[in-house]
Every structure is written in C-alpha cells, then in structure tokens.
Write a structure and sequence with these properties.
This protein has 163 residues and is mostly helical. Helix content is 65%, strand content 5%. It contains 7 helices and 2 strands.
Length: 163
C-alpha cells in the first residue's frame, strides 16, 4: 500500500474516533494496540497453517527431512490481510461484549473504513497489474497488462470488485 493511502486511512480513523466521541464511547489507546496485536497473531498463525498445508500429504517426510516449515512461512499469512481483519474483528467483538459497549454501533463505524480500504487496495492492484483479469472479448473488457507486461483485452477484475 502506498504511503499516501496511510494518511487517508489515518484520517478516516480519526473520523471514526470522532463519531465514537459523539456517542460517548470511551476508547483507550491500549484497545487499538490489543486489536492490532491480535490481528498480527492471527496472520502469523495463518501463515503457519498455510505453509504447512502442502506437508499434510506426506507428514512423515516433512518431519524426517526437516521440511516442517519453509523459510518464508511467515509471508504466507502476511499476504492474506483478510485473516488479520477477521482475527481483530473476533477479538474486538469479545472485547466489546465484555465491556458492555454497543457492538453493532462500533461495527457500523468501522464498516465504511473496511470498504474504502478494500477499494484502495484494488486500485493498488490495478496500478501494479498483479490482478489483471481474464482475457475476454466482452464489452466490459479493458486494455490491461499482466505481470509480464503483455497487454490484452481483459475482464477488469480489480474495478468490478470495487463496485
């Protein structure tokens, strides 16, 4: 994600905090840190599971030949940011229930931020040409490159998923 986008997301986070202050929700900075850590732990555990899935076919070979985890096992989870969002959402739900805070009000405050983050993410995919779409002759097709730089009329996956 580009550094300028972080400024937009930080501004939206401040807007959400202002909405929370309007409804008299108290938010301690430790809550944000706890949700961030929970999201990271979820992503790291997802990396372990995703990296170990190919070894389930031959578990003894993985144990005897030291192929328990590949060297970049942590990247498998970090590439899937939705798992981190899901983990933080589950932890946030239990936290809000424990503190007797309005769960649906807080989730409603975060929903636009999640949708905007996904839209910005998909525009980044379009800029980097890493989700370039399937070659098609449809009227929806756009002239898009793939990862190798080969241009063709492709279904605009990144733009359709935003809508």
């Amino acid at each position: 994600m580009h550094p300028q986008i972080h400024g937009i997301i930080d501004g939206l986070a401040l807007l959400i905090l202002a909405i929370g202050a309007h409804f008299r929700l108290r938010w301690h900075p430790a809550y944000s840190i706890a949700l961030l850590l929970d999201g990271l732990v979820t992503v790291i555990w997802a990396g372990v599971v995703i990296a170990w899935l190919p070894n389930l076919r031959f578990p003894l070979r993985a144990l005897f030949f030291g192929e328990i985890l590949p060297p970049d096992w942590w990247r498998a989870g970090l590439d899937n940011w939705l798992l981190g969002v899901a983990g933080a959402a589950i932890a946030g739900y239990f936290f809000l229930r424990r503190r007797n805070l309005p769960v649906w009000l807080v989730l409603d405050a975060f929903a636009p931020l999640l949708a905007l983050t996904l839209a910005i993410w998909r525009v980044g995919c379009a800029i980097n040409a890493d989700s370039y779409g399937k070659v098609t002759d449809s009227w929806l097709a756009m002239w898009l490159p793939d990862v190798a730089g080969n241009y063709a009329r492709r279904y605009p996956t990144q733009y359709i998923s935003i809508g």
